[in-house]
Design a protein that fits this description.
CATH architecture of the largest domain in chain A: 3-Layer(aba) Sandwich
Largest interface: A-B, 26 and 26 residues
Number of domains of chain A: 2
Helix content of chain A: 25-40%
CATH topology of the largest domain in chain A: Aminopeptidase
Oligomer: homodimer
Strand content of chain A: 25-35%
Strand order of the largest sheet of chain A: 1-10-12-11-13-16-14-15
CATH class of the largest domain in chain A: Alpha Beta
Number of strands of chain A: 16
CATH superfamily of the largest domain in chain A: Zn peptidases
Radius of gyration of chain A: 23 Å
Shape of chain A: elongated
Chain lengths: 452, 452
């Protein structure tokens, strides 16, 4: 029936198309000529900075978000209390490799999020594996007492860099457990980054209940290349010291603001995550995403748009190491008896927009495909089946059949910065960011019109 | 008939499409996994640097290009002698504004290419115009003896930034002549750049025979904002000193290398311009373009491709201030009796590819549209009527009906860097550059197959 509706709308298209294209042009004009996104991102990155769940800066970011929503006069600005993990990197993070032959090299490293400390300086012989699979197959005696180095490269030949990330992701998540199963005393992984450079990339890792916990860190891709080269001819010892620590869970919040709809209780949720890793400034991940969504709502309000559904921007807390915010939001909205009509997430960086992906039914994909003509003047061309986002993911269980949408920017530069010290404001482009916000505002406008 | 041919090919498409898509995949794999583009661009930017026509560095770049072509074992590496203008910025370039009220501000400025010097420090009252049209309409007495400041902004609401550039371009090209007609002693223009920042953007300007020559420079967009604000309430004097100079024309070269085709005398020319403005490193403009084309030819040779036509890469000299290379190439190839079948230029930066534009007939546009399915996996989606390039432009007169193609990357960041000190290697992304080279290689492969 939605397909019929879409076909019917296409027949009506000359007039509807013209009204829509005029309104969409006004959205883009507002974003490009009078946009607030870039200055807002500067504030978040420079006046607050990195903001891992449970940290003081995360709480500061929550206060800032509330103030911003109020300054833009969103309806109904409020916070949802949640409980989040609280892990801290600590003050010491050092490492190097050395050989009897006299080679010595400092490692640029970052503890993986959730890692235990080394309890002072830890030394061990380094043993390299080219993949997690190779590590899983090795004889335990070869590894026991050593420091495992997993040097699995992201595959540069994938055009969509997220696919290359997906292919390597397990070395970060599972590396410590698999190395510990073989008796290793610590694990170092090659950073999940595409360029060969000096930046280590952190990210979450897991322990399990059956396996001893060992410290885990990522070294830069450049370090990985150097260490691997030396290991071809020499025995290397690694020395590492991490004093990161897990603290008791802490109270925190999701932050929300709305444009009330004619049907108040029917909600379209749009958001990203306010927390970020504790290195860099969380500029692309996911400062850009939360700013995109706040700016989209600001633009629609500024243009006097009166939505059919309530459009709610949600700044989720704790995507990076637990998704407590996403899970709590799905439960809370269901318990309130709200009707969640659709949700959209921006969590792939602030790069030039390519389009939108849909985790939904065939007719929802058909619906967004029918938008493609309206978006062609703005260089958006991807309207296809795909992923929504981590934060909005739990809505799938509480609202079976709900369509989830993901904003799709160009992915080429994302893994230059992801979870690295280089994810700073200076690496976000003003126009690319503004075009993302405009694209999301236009997309949400069309969804609001077309969804029942 | 070409349309018929295209339709026929589409009928044959399952097998042809499969062979083509396999070969195109191998092109992208080579570019992304074993590409030379990024390192070659680093050499050009860091070991040579900016290379304006007539300069020693331009000559060094020509030698480097020949060596590169030889190192990649291209067939028939050679140079075409040409004559180019020789203008130099000189050693002094300073300016500031001041008011009786005590305001004082240093100007970040760059002489426009071709400007005369100020002959020492020049001082004058500043008078602002918001456009060239406003200047043209003003009464001469208001301007005589003053320094004209043309503060025309690029229109940020154009999605394609080249359109915004086109709308402002005249203030740089014609500003000095129009200001001199009103009796001005110098002209300062707001830089043709989109962000508000401290970088001035240079570029070519013209004098005419009837109007006195006056010095011309661009100030940064940030300076333009500050100066304009102050002028609302104060009278400002500007002081500027430029000792740039025009020298006699100098000998130089276009540099070429080929993959010989089965039909040797039928040529597809691909290229960009080797010269660059004398600030920054000419990284996007047009280091990226020449590297794109060299890498495309390297990849096709590396994959053992035997072309039907001769594929010739041309590094044109002097696009920035005269186009002597482009003009001489068109004349020379015609005089040699060569059959130029098509030409492609890359001169819009090393950003993520969007597609290709065609300055050609309806059937040529249809032909490239028929490529779009093969390019969809690589995120290319623009296959439309549009511009070719400055260097290949003169081929239109010598080969009436020749299709000219332009490589179209994303344009959002181009005018952050264009002709500015910030156009350096660090602002080019490795994957975006490699994808451009791969796209061009694949496009040229398809053109070579499909064109008679």
């Amino acid at each position: 029936m939605k397909i019929l509706l879409v076909s019917f709308l296409l027949l009506l298209s000359p007039i509807v198309f013209c009204q829509d294209s005029t309104f969409i042009k006004s959205i883009y004009d507002e974003a490009l000529a009078r946009g607030q996104a870039y200055n807002d991102l500067r504030e978040l990155c420079k006046n607050i900075g990195p903001r891992l769940s449970g940290s003081a800066k995360a709480e500061m970011a929550i206060e800032w978000s509330e103030e911003k929503f109020n300054s833009y006069k969103f309806d109904n600005v409020f916070k949802q209390p949640i409980i989040v993990p609280h892990w801290e990197r600590g003050t010491t993070e050092s490492g190097w490799v050395s050989s009897k032959e006299g080679n010595l090299h400092k490692l640029n490293l970052l503890a993986l999020g959730g890692s235990i400390s080394t309890n002072g300086l830890m030394k061990g012989q380094l043993i390299e594996f080219s993949s997690l699979e190779e590590l899983k197959k090795v004889n335990k005696q070869k590894v026991a007492g050593k420091i495992v180095f997993i040097n699995q490269k992201m595959d540069a030949t994938f055009i969509q860099t997220f696919k290359a990330y997906g292919g390597c992701y397990a070395i970060r998540g599972e590396g410590a457990v698999e190395a510990a199963k073989k008796g290793a005393i610590a694990v170092l992984i090659r950073s999940l980054g595409l360029p060969i450079d000096e930046h280590p990339h952190t990210g979450s890792m897991r322990y399990d209940k059956e396996t001893p916990k060992i410290p885990a860190a990522a070294i830069s891709t450049l370090d990985a290349e150097i260490v691997s080269k030396w290991l071809e001819t020499e025995t290397l010892n690694a020395s590492i010291e991490l004093n990161c620590k897990e603290y008791p869970d802490a109270p925190s919040f999701n932050v929300m603001g709305e444009l009330k709809g004619k049907d108040e209780n029917s909600i379209i949720s749009i958001g990203g995550h306010l927390d970020s890793w504790d290195t860099g400034e969380g500029a692309h991940d996911d400062g850009a995403g939360v700013i995109h969504c706040m700016e989209a709502l600001r633009i629609l309000k500024e243009l006097g748009y009166k939505p059919k559904h309530t459009l709610r921007v949600v700044f989720f807390m704790n995507e990076e190491n637990g998704n407590a915010g996403g899970k709590a939001y799905a439960t809370w909205t269901k318990e309130k008896g709200e009707n969640q009509v659709a949700a959209l997430e921006s969590d792939r960086g602030g790069f030039a927009p390519r389009g939108f992906s849909c985790d939904g039914s065939e007719e929802h994909i058909q619906l967004i495909s029918s938008f493609s003509g309206l978006f062609a003047p703005y260089d958006l061309h991807v309207f296809e089946k795909g992923y929504g986002g981590v934060d909005i993911g739990p809505l799938k269980n509480t609202y079976p059949g709900i369509p989830l949408f993901g904003f799709v920017p160009d992915s080429q530069r994302y893994f230059d910065f992801h979870h690295a010290p280089s994810d700073v404001f200076e690496n976000v482009n003003e126009r690319e960011l503004a075009l993302g916000a405009a694209g999301i505002a236009a997309f949400i406008y069309l969804l609001d019109k077309e969804l029942p």
